[in-house]
UniProtKB/TrEMBL annotation:
Catalytic EC class: hydrolase
GO molecular function, one term: 5'-3' DNA helicase activity
Species this chain originates from: Parageobacillus thermoglucosidasius (Geobacillus thermoglucosidasius)
Taxon lineage: Bacteria, Bacillati, Bacillota, Bacilli, Bacillales
Protein name according to UniProt: 3'-5' exonuclease DinG
Pfam families associated with the record: DEAD, Helicase_C_2, RNase_T
Endoplasmic reticulum keyword on record: no
Catalytic activity: ATP + H2O = ADP + phosphate + H(+)
Length: 921
């Protein structure tokens, strides 16, 4: 029998069939021999109400199902179509549980055939896809998807997706398919026999596999040869000639923006005249092209490499996938661009081969192995940032990164990336690697004297994290678990087995190591519990998360002394473990086991030395007392007893930037949409140590007309933050947001400065079911990253998105995707923020004013980012509500308002403002 697949999609009244949720629409598509041969779809009367948010998502209302059959009337037909078939769905467990419940209620036996989940299959086949939502995968494969969340349309699209996924699987090399078949026993989908058939086909067809190379039984994409620099004498156009031309870029729907050309000229001149420059480029300027084009011309004309540094992976991807290919079509010379990151961004092939050989039954690990096997047939870079893996699998990625000692085999992704960078005109990197390069004794980036730093408002923060330290309980516990006991499957047991295979006797030493590891597990548990209790006893009453600043020389009391004593004991035990490990290593090397292949699967030595590094850092955090370093303990009040971390950061980095970056490089161009406060660059200049370099400073305003596109509204009848409790303020916010939602009928982003206030507001809205027809999506309450929550938000026509820190920037919701931004409080750092309090003390000690020199500028820059979420294109129109009356009543409110583009500001009662908003929209 040829394989028969029934692809099904359902729309339902909710998510839990056991609680009475029912099917309202079903779509089925039958696939045989890679072709669609049959279709079936029907609405069903669920015999209960359809919730408003489901009606909004699916566009299926009560009237559409009123005269439809109940499921039992069509159950026989559904059962008949499923005979002798695979059951296939996008998130199969959801559809299957509903189907089984409906079959049970209709008196039919449950479906017992094989199942395939196209989400899981897509994760394997497209390990680097940005999203596994059906509509995003359809877009990726150019499958038309006209009616998302309609069962018939979704089933059709899923069927086409499934055919494409099987087709991609068939194209994989034989060894990859063989590995996948072995691993498939632990997947959710029944893929074993499908893969078996594909392997048989491949073996009989003798498929050509010349585009792959093979390393220890793993197929890799054959790397393209590194492009050599073109030494030919070209009479190409110069930047001056390009700039003197018609000033039009060959982009579809290109609208000339004078600011973009002004910025191009400024960047080129800064590079050409070896000057540092600060460029604040408003939203819509097109700043990526405004620095890439002049950088490309300069690199070619002067034969000088330009390094571009970004903060976010998202911007890096945009440069590589969208902007660089476009720049290559504009410049009349071959342009070589390379990406170079830190070693730990790249996969170690030796570690992966060892990982692949290990027997894991853990689902996340098995799926990760499958994804990596397929990804290695596609990637040229080996950059792990390309992967989209589950949060469970993310915990295992550190086991596979290259480390500093990892010089690897001839298939070394980092060395290959370095080679490409050596030949490149433009090298793209990230802020952390740039800092690593300027501090390393041996430079990691190829020679360069000219840099463009995009997202430059993050540079100081990244440097603070880079020079700071962090030790958390989870990483110590993970290492100790990885080392394990001699009767477990950890690295200690593996090393012992290796010794036994070589007939080396060291049992006593292994037993001592095991005892030390057990004692360390107990002591570290206790130490982090004590730390948590110590910090929570000193936290302000209203904050949920505790961030307690410690000053080792002034801390006192019995608890602190007990923690110090325990810390010394932990350190002593680690020293003993390192000593025993060094002796084992000496025997290991002496017996020439170093070269044995089995060494690749033994990570015991690196585990112990990593543990030693972490404990050294912990000791430094709790013992040393440099006044220019701030240290703090973080703990969650409702978290696990030992879910605690301790951090440190430098409080002043201006001298570092001056000496290591600006003095050593000829030209550094810093750009961002938010660099000025009140029209001045003085804050960023002082923080980055640029005062003595007299940089060129230029603000290039947004081409958008904020006066026509946006209004800012401050409700005068809102309670003052200081006059009410946090719960009362949350209730007022919930009430205000509800009133705005009822009037606008569109989408709203609500920005909070603290998770505690977000949580209380979300609770107040749900308690009264105030959000009405709007779907409420709240960070931390619904699980998922900022990107995932944003994608969920985009699915609905009427929705409210609650977000904290990472929603203030980087969220791009143009047009109808956003009508209103609500800023709940002016984004001042909380009073218990240890970094701000330490920096403030330092400013005060020098006779400065911490509020005007630090707190206010930080808050203004954040405020500008929040307001910037609203207007993303020339056609956008909307309103910003600021619920914090300090914007207009406090003397410093003018700094916030003066830092925004010109726009109308209204302060009236909420009711009057909403009336005005309705008329304006």
């Amino acid at each position: 029998m040829k394989d028969r697949f029934v692809i099904m999609d359902l729309e339902t009244t909710g998510n839990v069939p056991k609680k009475g949720d029912r099917i309202i629409q079903l779509g089925m598509v039958v696939v045989e021999n890679g072709q669609i041969i049959e279709r079936f779809s029907s609405f069903f009367n669920p015999e209960r109400d359809i919730p408003p948010f489901v009606q909004q998502l699916t566009n299926i209302n009560e009237q559409m199902v009123a005269d439809a059959p109940v499921f039992a009337e069509e159950a026989a037909k559904v059962v008949d179509m499923l005979q002798q078939s695979y059951f296939v769905a996008h998130n199969v467990s959801f559809d299957l549980q509903f189907l089984q419940e409906e079959l049970h209620m209709a008196g039919f036996p449950p479906f017992s055939g094989p199942t395939i989940d196209t989400v899981e299959l897509a994760r394997i086949v497209f390990p680097d896809a940005e999203s596994y939502k059906l509509s995003d995968l359809a877009k990726l494969l150019c499958i038309a998807h006209d009616q998302p969340h309609h069962a018939d349309s979704d089933a059709e699209v899923t069927a086409k997706l499934f055919i494409a996924l099987l087709d991609r699987l068939r194209q994989l090399p034989l060894v990859t398919l063989q590995h996948l078949k072995r691993l498939s026993a632990y997947l959710k989908s029944d893929l074993y026999s499908l893969l078996d058939n594909m392997i048989m086909e491949k073996m009989t067809s003798l498929a050509d596999e010349k585009s792959y190379i093979f390393y220890h039984g793993v197929a890799l994409k054959k790397p393209a040869p590194v492009q050599k620099k073109d030494k030919g004498d070209h009479k190409w156009a110069t930047f001056a000639e390009f700039f003197a031309g018609p000033r039009v870029l060959p982009l579809a729907h290109y609208e000339r923006r004078d600011g973009q050309w002004e910025m191009m000229k400024l960047v080129y001149e800064a590079l050409e005249t070896s000057q540092h420059a600060l460029v604040e480029a408003g939203t819509g300027i097109g700043k990526s092209l405004a620095y890439l084009i002049p950088s490309a011309f300069f690199a070619h004309e002067r034969q000088k490499r330009v390094v571009i540094s970004t903060h976010t992976l998202q911007l890096q991807q945009q440069l590589l996938e969208r902007d660089i290919p476009f720049v290559k079509t504009i410049v009349p010379f071959p342009l070589r661009v390379a990406v170079l990151k830190g070693k730990r961004n790249y996969l170690s092939l030796d570690k992966f081969v060892a990982f692949l050989r290990e027997h894991h039954h853990n689902y996340d690990v098995v799926l990760l192995k499958c994804q990596l096997l397929v990804w290695l047939t596609k990637t040229e870079t080996g950059d792990m940032d390309e992967l989209n893996v589950s949060s469970g699998a993310r915990l295992f990625l550190p086991l596979l990164f290259m480390d500093e000692e990892d010089n690897g085999s001839k298939h070394n992704f980092f060395l290959r990336a370095k080679q490409r960078a050596e030949e490149a005109d433009i090298v793209i990197t990230n802020h952390a690697f740039l800092l690593h390069d300027v501090t390393a004794s041996t430079p990691l980036l190829p020679d360069y004297e000219h840099i463009v730093i995009d997202e430059a408002h993050h540079l100081e923060d990244v440097a603070s994290h880079y020079f700071g330290q962090q030790v958390d309980y989870v990483s110590i516990r993970l290492l100790l678990t990885r080392i394990g006991k001699i009767n477990e499957n950890g690295s200690l047991a593996k090393l012992m087995k290796l010794f036994e295979r070589h007939h080396l006797s060291a049992e006593e030493r292994f037993l001592r190591c095991e005892r030390l590891v057990e004692e360390l597990q107990f002591e570290c548990d206790e130490l982090f519990r004590m730390m948590r209790r110590y910090a929570l006893a000193r936290k302000p009453p209203e904050s949920g998360r505790c961030r307690y600043r410690i000053e080792p020389k002034t801390e006192s009391g019995r608890q602190w002394s007990a923690m110090k004593e325990l810390l010394w004991r932990v350190r002593d035990h680690v020293a003993q473990l390192v000593d025993e490990t060094k002796r084992l290593r000496a025997v290991f090397i002496q017996n020439e086991m170093e070269t044995s292949r089995s060494n690749k699967s033994c990570s015991y030595f690196s585990d112990v030395f990593a543990l030693n590094q972490i404990v050294d850092a912990l000791f430094d955090l709790m013992e040393s007392d440099d006044p220019m370093i701030v240290r703090w303990i973080e703990a969650e009040e409702k978290g696990a007893a030992n879910a605690t971390a301790i951090y440190s950061q430098p409080i002043q980095l201006d001298e570092f930037f001056a000496e290591r970056l600006f003095m050593r490089k000829k030209s550094v161009v810093l750009t961002s949409a938010t660099l000025t406060m009140n029209g001045s660059f003085s804050y960023i200049i002082s923080r980055l140590g640029l005062s003595d370099f007299y940089p060129v400073c230029q603000t290039i305003p947004s081409p958008f007309s904020f006066k026509d596109q946006a209004i800012l509204m401050v409700p005068s009848d809102f309670p003052s933050i200081s006059s009410v409790s946090l719960e009362e303020y949350a209730s007022a916010v919930a009430d205000g947001v509800t009133q705005i939602a009822e009037r606008i009928k569109g989408k709203m982003l609500v920005l909070f400065t603290s998770y505690e206030l977000l949580r209380l507001t979300a609770a107040a809205m749900n308690m009264d079911e105030r959000s009405g027809e709007h779907v409420l999506i709240a960070q931390g309450i619904q699980s998922g990253s900022a990107a995932k929550l944003t994608r969920v938000f985009q699915q609905f026509e009427q929705a409210i998105l609650f977000g904290t820190s990472n929603f203030w920037e980087g969220v791009d919701l143009p047009g109808d995707e956003l009508s209103v931004v609500v800023i709940v409080r002016l984004p001042f750092a909380p009073p218990d923020d240890p970094v701000i309090s330490a920096k403030s003390e330092h400013i005060r000690a020098k006779g400065g004013n911490p509020f005007y020199e630090l707190s206010l500028p930080e808050a203004v820059l954040r405020f500008k980012q929040g307001v910037g979420r609203l207007i993303r294109t020339k056609k956008d129109k909307g309103a910003v509500f600021v619920l914090d009356r300090r914007l207009t009543s406090a003397s410093y409110g003018k700094y916030f308002l003066n830092s925004l583009p010109p726009l109308h500001v209204y302060e009236q009662s909420l009711d009057q403002l909403l009336q005005k908003l309705e008329n304006w929209l």
